[in-house]
Amino acid sequence: MAYSDLELLARIVKCEAGGEGLNGMRAVASVVMNRVNITYGEYGRLHTVREVVFQPRQFVCAMETVGGQYNAQNLYNMSLEQTHWDVAEWAMAGNRLTNLGFALWFFNPYSPECRPFFPSQVGEFAIRIGDHCFYNPTAAYADT
């Protein structure tokens, strides 16, 4: 499907953080836009929401199959509500959660603790919002 960047962002927000409340959804939208806007490292080569969302192995919600099985929780199956559009518009207008820093990664550890680095030494723990841990780039990220 040929979704606009705005709709892709709204769909990834719903899929990745629909149950995380307004700040959780804004945090995920901020990560996507941080990746769009960063000018160096791995994500510095990406320039649109579409490129970020569909970069291989980044967002489970952008995959139609996971482990050879159909992934029912993918962005194509999301029913958007006005709040998802509002969050996407908020982020695309340049807004960010200030306590998030310039986070480029997030994940759900399925435990009360966030590990200090993710996905490796290139991301350092910044904040936990709901069930997700968010990570800012370290100096090592520039070499990716």
TrEMBL record:
<dbReference type="Pfam" id="PF07486">
    <property type="entry name" value="Hydrolase_2"/>
</dbReference>
<dbReference type="GO" id="GO:0016787">
    <property type="term" value="F:hydrolase activity"/>
</dbReference>
<dbReference type="InterPro" id="IPR011105">
    <property type="entry name" value="Cell_wall_hydrolase_SleB"/>
</dbReference>
<keyword id="KW-0378">Hydrolase</keyword>
<dbReference type="InterPro" id="IPR042047">
    <property type="entry name" value="SleB_dom1"/>
</dbReference>
<protein>
    <submittedName>
        <fullName>Cell wall hydrolase</fullName>
    </submittedName>
</protein>
<feature type="domain" description="Cell wall hydrolase SleB">
    <location>
        <begin position="19"/>
        <end position="135"/>
    </location>
</feature>
